[in-house]
């Protein structure tokens, strides 16, 4: 997270922000005060890409769902990342190391981008 803030390279979808808020305000042992969680969401909203409209990820998500057999909600996240031009998707919900087109999945709880040999496809 520190690196993404420093490099201003983090990208999130609206869906991820919504899920984050829902989890951190209700999960026992983790629950944040709503005002703190809301400020987190406001801060992280700067990571929302301008070029992703609400309708565009839906069409792309259906293609991702059909091609890779992912759940609809995982497909929405993948589609938003692809549309935003991301090369690396940090998530614990998909298979670590999996390639989805030009997007590579990395579980941030088992390794960090610095520890991988990640190179965007087509970049040497």
Q: Quick recap of the structure?
A:
The protein is mostly helical.
Architecture overview:
This protein has 5 helices and 3 strands. The chain has 124 residues and is mostly helical. The protein has a 3-stranded mixed sheet with strand order 1-3-2, with helices on one face.
Q: How much β-strand is present in the residues?
A: 5-15%
Give the second-level CATH assignment, the architecture. 3-Layer(aba) Sandwich
Instruction: Indicate the CATH class.
Output: Alpha Beta
Chain oligomer state: single chain
- Strand tally: 3
SS-based class: mainly alpha
Number of helices: 5
* Spatial extent as radius of gyration: 15 Å
Shape: globular
Helix % is 40-55%
Give the H and E element order. Answer: HHHHHEEE
The total tally of domains equals 1
The CATH topology is what?
Rossmann fold
The main sheet orders its strands as 1-3-2
What does the main sheet amount to?
Answer: 3 strands, mixed
Q: Uncertain regions: pLDDT < 50 for 5+ in a row?
A: none
Q: Termini, distance in Å?
A: 25 Å
Mean pLDDT across every amino acid position: 83
Features:
124 residues, mainly alpha, Rossmann fold, 3-stranded mixed sheet, 5 helices
Task: Please outline the helices and strands.
Blueprint: H1 2-7, H2 14-24, H3 34-44, H4 55-68, H5 72-83, E1 88-90, E2 99-100, E3 103-106
Parallel strand pairs: 1-3
Antiparallel strand pairs: 2-3
